[in-house]
Amino acid sequence: MIQLEQLSKFYGSDHDAICALNNVDLTVPKGSITGVIGVSGAGKSTLIRCVNMLERPSSGRVLVDGQDLTQLDAPALRKARHDIGMIFQHFNLLDSRTVYQNIAFPLELMGFDKNAMKERITPLLELTGLSDKKDRYPSALSGGQKQRVAIARALASRPKVLLCDEATSALDPQTTSSILELLREINQELGLTILLITHEMEVVKSICDSVALISGGELVETSKVGPFFTAPSTKLGREFLEEFLRIDPPKSLLDRLSSDGSDKPYPVIRIIFNDENVASPLISQLARSFELDISILQAKIEDIQGHTLGLMIAEFRGNAAHIEKALARLSDMQLSTEVLGYVD
Amino acid sequence: MSTDMMALIGHATLQTLYMVLISGIISGVLGLALGLALYVTRPGQILAYRPAFLVTSAVVNIGRSIPFIILMVAIVPFTRLVVGTSIGTNAAMVPLTIAAIPFVARLIEGALNEISPGLIEAAQAMGATPKQIVTKVLIPEARGGIITSITITIVTLISYSAMAGAVGGGGLGDVGIRYGYNRFEPLIMLVTVAILVIMVQGVQMLGDSMVKRANHK
């Protein structure tokens, strides 16, 4: 539905131009939810703004439903934009208009008459749960409600694609999940293709089908969400995953922990499990095979759209040689392990 | 105070109201247009066009830097062309309007700058034409700021109109100077100033209440 081909964007003049996007290729299949994740400054905002030409790419093609937007003149582009809804981090509602009038805005632009507008808007108010707030002004709404208005407004023109520019970044976690749920619902019920950008793994985890990791203006990894979370193929992917899974060890442990293994013999190890090994009785096997006492200090299991991901911090006690062997076994098993430090 | 005096002051009050109102309306409309032009042609804006922006901006700055009393006499030929005479209330209205236009334009531009760029972007993303952005986003969203600008302008015009006497325009300021100051009649000075104060208060209160109703922030 959306195809970005060799998309590049430079700011500034030739010799000291800053490259915001570098030869990006991305395909968003019809009906899917694709997330682009990256740290701030990675180019994700430029990327999504290139999809509806809010930002003109320096080179490359942007195909939305087969139409190359980079080739269109102004009137044709305006028409094409009616097929591309967009929501923003800061909602961008018109303060001078009520909820209803805000949703009517794109329809006014398209020249709808009053009755036709009402026919479109009423079901959208219901879908977004705003029926009782239709005559309120945005100033009287909460952040989550404002984003719902923005979603209804973006859907009013019945777009084929919805672009979400950090749509939940200004919202608290609870509101975020309700907005994500709404987006998921819209995706399934209306078959709407969604492209979103975010810096939060949580967003990708909860609604995306596919994910593209962007860094320094380049897509470094593109995959389905399941594999991305369980086995990211790039270093950056692993960093994102670790940040996502990060749990701070308890202070009592940190106080005992020493980075030097010479005076304290017992390692504290962080293990990340994925689908293949999360179910196996790994810890008790290790304990039995190597005569170790293993105590689990902290653990976390995440379910990512049917895939399981686990993280554990454990203390290995026993004979030094045995510990060595146990660690070797762990690395043989292709588990991601890391020695956090040593205790006595 | 004699009835003659009262009639004189009454007449002067009407002259002031007339000058301020007409020049306020005309400069409000033209200043709004010029302010919008300044805003939309600024580099990076929806109708960015650097030459037009620079010229408009320079003209506005020149207009704002000429002292009113000098402007009034400098444009006498133009005034004669527009209203057919270079003296009287109507003749005073022309320089008042000309002086107020660039003033309004800058105020309006400032009011438009308060609009979040995100709103314009959202409208563009929905396929709005530049004209639709002006009429459906810029003007409605800046409504409060526009009313504030017009209010400030009218108050300024009330004080500028005191100089209208220089071209025989009459009005309260003129009465204040000729009778209150030149003939040293403190009562008349006091009354004219009091009426001006009441006018300014009234305009400000009206403006404030309109802004309050226009803003849903």
TrEMBL record, chain A:
Molecular functions per Gene Ontology: ATP binding
Main location: membrane
One Pfam family it belongs to: NIL
Membrane topology reported for the UniProt record: Peripheral membrane protein
Keyword Nucleotide-binding: yes
Domain ABC transporter: 2-241
Keywords: Amino-acid transport, ATP-binding, Cell membrane, Membrane, Nucleotide-binding, Translocase, Transport
The keyword Endoplasmic reticulum appears for this protein: no
Compartments (UniProt record): Cell inner membrane
Superkingdom of origin: Bacteria
Xref: CDD domains: ABC_MetN_methionine_transporter
Protein name: Methionine ABC transporter ATP-binding protein
Species this protein is from: Larsenimonas suaedae
Automatic annotation (TrEMBL), chain B:
Source organism (scientific name): Larsenimonas suaedae
Keyword Ligase attributed: no
Keyword terms: Cell membrane, Membrane, Transmembrane, Transmembrane helix, Transport
Record carries keyword Transmembrane: yes
Pfam short name (any one): BPD_transp_1
Homology family: Belongs to the binding-protein-dependent transport system permease family.
Protein's membrane topology: Multi-pass membrane protein
Protein name (Swiss-Prot/TrEMBL): ABC transporter permease
